[in-house]
Amino acid sequence: MRRTYFLGGTTAKGYYRFYDELISNLDRVLYIEGGFTSIVHPMLNEIVKTYEKDYEVGCVYNHIEPNQLEAVVIPEKRLAIIDRTKVGNKKLAFPKLLENLIYIGEGYDYEYLAKHKDYLIQVREEVKNYYQRAINHFENGLKYHEEVEKIYIQFLNVDKANKETDVLIRRIFRASWLNKKSTVVNRYLGAATPDGPIDFVLDLTQDVEERIFIKGRSGTGKSTMLKKIVKEAEQRGYDVEIYHCGFDPESLDMIILRELGLAIFDATAPHEHEPQRSNDEIYDVYELFIDGNPDQDYQEQILELKGKYKKETKKATNCLKSIQDRQRAFETVYKNALDEGFLKGVIARINNWIES
Fold first, then answer.
1. Distance between CA 78 and CA 23 in Å, rounded?
2. Is the pLDDT of residue 10 over 80?
């Protein structure tokens, strides 16, 4: 079966990735070097189709092309195949022993690329500039978002929030402890894309028996509550899937405790979802944690700040769209320069590596 998620994204804190943690928890990694998303995706997709019948396969998507893969993880085999451009300039720590590399560059027609050199350099520079502009707009949006949080925090009853969180923790774990060390993985719930924010909440929780949909407002304790549940799970030996916010990666949006058949997540915009199954429930922190009526008392100020936030995130989204357009043009040149026969050989090499 497939597990779909993101490990990297353009956020208000810059381009932020969780690949280092993934790699450190695997036995083997195969990097694909010299390729780009539209070139690497078809190969990775073939691997997914081959192995999803018998294994759980982690499908890691690219936030600029959210229908295309940038990595595939097979947890049972403790391995991953990763587009190396997405992990930064990380050097191979244990070449051949734990890490292997396939270089796509050998399959390009140099003469064809040389004819387009100036164009490629220009487009690459434009992409770089648009990334920085997107980050700047997200940073501005975060400032307005934090101003909204400050309003609600004034009304947050911390004692009540702590007590209700403790009640929820006791309900989740009861008296259960596992005699093992907890395994924790960090991923993104969703991401900002050229088409706006998207998420994989329903895909990730489709086989989870119990789902808790957290409702509330910014600054009403959703992420703090999730962090406390994570800490408790780790202490009790439960494995935890942590899903960070694609806008602010320091904030948590969802945790999944598969050993307990439980997912609990922020179900407010931009990843707003409503209960669909009999075991789904709403947990409204605004009703439980907040004293007074800030929605009414600060209505105009909140609407103004949210409007400014939306303007900034829309500008950031437009920048991501500009990146996508230019990156597609850039990759088209490389695809036209690539020997298709060479790619078939690469897929065979990947399969041989997996089974070696």
1. 10
2. yes
Is the same domain home to 184 and 89? no
Interhelix angle 37-51/299-336, nearest 10 degrees? 90
Paired residues of 80 in beta bridges: 29, 73
How much is the average pLDDT of 101-124? 97
Does 224 fall in a domain? yes
Please, what is the end-to-end C-alpha distance for the chain in angstroms?
A: 22
Residue 306 binned pLDDT confidence (cut-offs 50, 70, 90): very high
Non-local CB neighbours of 278 within 8 Å, separated by 6+ positions: none
For residues 264 and 229, give the distance between their C-alpha atoms in angstroms, rounded to a whole number: 10
pLDDT tens for each residue of 18-30:
999 999 899 999 9
CB 265 within 8 A of CB 243: yes
Domain-embedded: residue 44: yes
The amino acid present at 9, given as its one-letter code, is: G
DSSP assignment letter at 291? -
How many domains would you assign to the chain?
2
Range of the domain at 284: 156-291
Note the pLDDT of residue 287.
97
Selection from 93, 86, 60, 62 nearest residue 74 by Cα: 60
For residues 10 and 74, membership in a common domain is answered with: yes
Interatomic CA distance for residues 150 and 246, integer angstroms: 21
Q: Tell whether 253 is covered by a domain.
A: yes
Q: 70 with 22: CB under 8 angstroms? A: no
